[in-house]
From TrEMBL:
Matching Gene3D superfamilies: 3.40.630.30
Stated name of the protein: N-acetyltransferase GCN5
Coiled coil, from the record: none
Source organism (scientific name): Actinomadura verrucosospora
Organism ancestry: Bacteria, Bacillati, Actinomycetota, Actinomycetes, Streptosporangiales
Keywords, alphabetical: Transferase
InterPro entries for this protein: Acyl_CoA_acyltransferase (IPR016181), GNAT_dom (IPR000182)
């Protein structure tokens, strides 16, 4: 089965847990980690996600977050998440935020992505970013703001390879605009 972007699914439970362990082992999930993976490692937490029922509820919540009426923390916007899978293997995630808040405009952008450590440097992030652009366009996002840490050379190359145009650097974040059409 080829690589594909899918909506979050319980079918990749075991490999999702393994990926989250990889993220935790590289230092993600600390109190100052404001990424989606950081939040997931803290709440519900990787230990709780091992329970199939908790994981199913988590998957349902992530999918429901695309709906404007879904409850979410203050300051969060609707977002659509896709997971990159290879057969039954979870490789990474990409999230399209439907609109920008002031914080997202400065730091987070419309699109965020992560690839598990064991699957990096194989073009997966570029593939996810390219494949999610039409979805962003259908949401009315054009162009999309994509950011990365100034010292994240890999992410910089991904964004630029897909057509990102650097606007500026703010507080250590490179801010790129990427056409979605």
């Amino acid at each position: 089965m080829p690589l594909e972007l899918v909506r979050p699914t319980t079918a990749v439970h075991a490999s999702f847990l393994a990926a989250m362990a990889e993220f935790r082992d590289e230092g993600r999930g600390t109190p100052d980690d404001r990424s989606q993976i950081g939040r997931d490692l803290r709440d519900p937490g990787i230990g709780e996600l091992a329970d199939p029922g908790v994981f199913a509820a988590y998957v349902a919540r992530v999918n429901a977050d695309a709906l404007p009426e879904s409850p979410r923390p203050r300051g969060f916007v609707p977002s659509t998440t896709f997971w990159l899978v290879d057969g039954g293997e979870y490789l990474g995630r990409i999230q399209v935020r439907h609109r920008l808040t002031e914080w997202l405009r400065d730091v987070g952008g419309h699109i965020g992505y992560d690839v598990r450590e064991s699957a990096r440097r194989r073009g997966h992030a570029s593939l996810m970013l390219r494949q999610v652009l039409p979805h962003a366009r259908r949401l009315g996002v054009d162009p999309a703001l994509v950011t990365c840490d100034e010292d994240n050379i890999g992410s910089r190359k991904v964004i630029e390879s897909v057509g990102g145009v650097l606007e500026d650097v703010r507080d250590g974040k490179r801010r790129y605009w990427l056409p979605t059409a």
